[in-house]
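This section describes the prediction task in plain terms. A model, or a person checking by hand, is given the sequence of a single protein chain and must write out its three-dimensional structure as a string of tokens. No templates, partner chains or ligands are provided. The sample shown here is typical of the held-out split.
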Amino acid sequence: MEKRVYNFSPGPAVLPLKILEQAQRDLVCYPGAGCSILEISHRSKTFDKIILGAEANIRTLYGIPDNYRVLFMQGGAILQFGMVAMNLLRDSGKAADYILTGTWSKKASEEAATQGKINVAFNAKATNYNRVPKQEELKLDPNAAYVYHCSNETIQGVQYPALPNVGDVPLIGDFSSDFLSRPVDVSKYGVMFACAQKNAGPAGVTMVIIRDDLVAKSPANLPSLVNYKVFAEGKSLLNTPPTFAIYIVKLVTDWLLNEIGGLAKIAKINEQKANLLYDAIEQSGGFYTAHAEPNCCSHMNVPFRLAKPELEEPFLKGAAALDLCELKGHRSVGGCRASIYNAMPVEGVQALRDFMLDFAKKNA
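The expected answer:
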């Protein structure tokens, strides 16, 4: 097998090697099916066990109450930006509150604005989206259709340390880049959604956790595939779902439950990994600086800049020579970015930390 690198890509991202090896075996012949996992029908008993098992695992990991549906959809987070507004805003006669803490919450607000009125309850644009708001900074409408926030901004590396208080208004959470990375009180949300390609599996499937009373609000005049109620009634099988991606979600959630021991344990591992990098940044004496403010630095995505921008290219080349790859930052933030999702081993982060400290020492 060709040598594997430490892949710090923001997504599609690293998966546990054990899962890739199991998928490799099942690619030719899935046990009991007599054919490839890519060839089984979504209406078969074999796939029924897979999708129900994936749902059961997600319910167990998050402790999801019985009055929530778990849906396996397509279209990624961007489709959900529009779907949430189609189903919960368009015919509500109300506005929706949007908390803008980065690129993806801004994009969500723009998509929602195609369907109804939105209110920007907070906007961190002035500081290039480097923080989440304090509670007293939120300008919330107590009669809003819902409040939207992004739990973790992949590009800016900003993560909510605690939920915003939105009263009785339904809270909508985009968890695309920190899904399954830490415990979450699902009962505080009306809707949680996440594309899979960060922590849960490959690109192609989007998980939606939605409360029953909000499912019931879906307008009847929506097309079936963007109607939460119709999709839920079809049990995620309204059309042919992304069967292989759901299969990988099942394997990932098996791994989290049986090998890691749940979300509280993976959260501790993720905190340990993040602290290695933030400590290296702090120890560098200003050679590196993190983009996000200290109280909301992400445990999933760590964007940082070098004090001397001309050293960024040598830094990236030096890292790649040590098999530390996909570290270039997003153009809107610049610098570098290390995405250290669940499947990134501690050893990979330690290797990056060591390289950062050595590079700073040699180039200070």
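For orientation: The two ends are 39 Å apart (CA to CA).
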